[in-house]
DNA sequence: TGGTCACCGAGTGGAATTCAATCATCGTGG
DNA sequence: CCACGATGATTGAATTCCACTCGGTGACCA
């Protein structure tokens, strides 16, 4: 049941930064086409060199069409980021469903595998590292991490009986920040990712969480209470 | 001797991205004044909303003056980044000198303290997270991390007899990436930094490195060879 | 006083964004 | 089944904003 709780309460709802809901059929294709184009451009020039003209041309649309759907350039990046996050959560759910999970560690491992897989296969996935440092409190990288940590905590509590509570959420936040950093580094220059950083990421996560949630630590905790 | 090796071989040399060496006296003040202004603006609007006009106005100069010293907008950011890195290294050296170091852990702790201290006191210090995602292979965040990891490795090898080698450097790179991420998160919204993330950062670093370099691990390593 | 050094800020060009005109699609009445 | 108006969708020239240039002017020095 909570396995796909990761998808979030608003999964499927249109992102709020789009200007106009598509009414007609073709618009939906336009919208995702624009994002596909943006993703391709992101892979080519990086997400700060991107121009609205590049996106429009790549999508076979005109400048005006971009602005019909998005209020400005960074809104497109936000939307692309959001789509990447949604696809990541979906992939985690798929991965979790496809694996036989015996301990919480298997679940954490799946998360890493999903992330790495998307880095390799999803065009423009590096957009997940996009953080708009302006006043907007929404669409904040920390909020994404926080949300994901809470959902993952639910899964680990319900499936593997980890003790629920703010400590678990906090530790998962820490774990996610570390994994983000190490995997970003792994893919910094190598398109397929430097394996040493990926492996070290898994190791670090396991060691960090094992400190509190290994069978031994848990039984000690149980004995103490 | 290697304690201030952290400063780097080119410490003191003018950054190469400055257009004209200041000849007259007042120019030096202008140059650092421009960077101070840029730092202030970075704190106000973040380093992607910054405009050359803002920098010039804040520094009491004109647009042209900015371009007299820096070839373009990102060069200013690079220079500010560079200054922050240099000050960080200087602070680490100061901190190392002022503390009584009994184990390598004390040195690592000093590094964290220096970083946190600068985040709190140095205007615009968040520029350390600035990464120019374009073709320029120099001025690369990963290169900074790599360079710093090597220097820190030298210190730990010479002062605390840690075993030299690529493993040490790699592990320090990993440690630096993790610390960067956790401290950036600590200061993401709180100007003074969320203490829980700072404390957890120290803990994580210690646990991670202890796995290989605790006295026990080292003696096991020595016995095996 | 002539020769640099510094500085200024209007001007240029390119990219972001707007908007009035045009095209496409849909629902509806004939 | 076919006009045909209403509304959605698209266009791209015009506008605005901002990085960056450059010729002119004052400041320092010898």
From TrEMBL, chains A, B:
DNA-binding region: 51-70
Coiled coil: none
Span of domain HTH tetR-type: 28-88
Keyword DNA-binding: yes
InterPro entries on file: Homeodomain-like_sf, HTH-type_TetR-like_transc_reg, HTH_TetR, TetR_C_22
Superkingdom of this protein's organism: Bacteria
This protein's UniProt keywords: DNA-binding
Record bears the keyword DNA-binding: yes
Protein name per the record: TetR/AcrR family transcriptional regulator
Species of origin: Cryobacterium levicorallinum
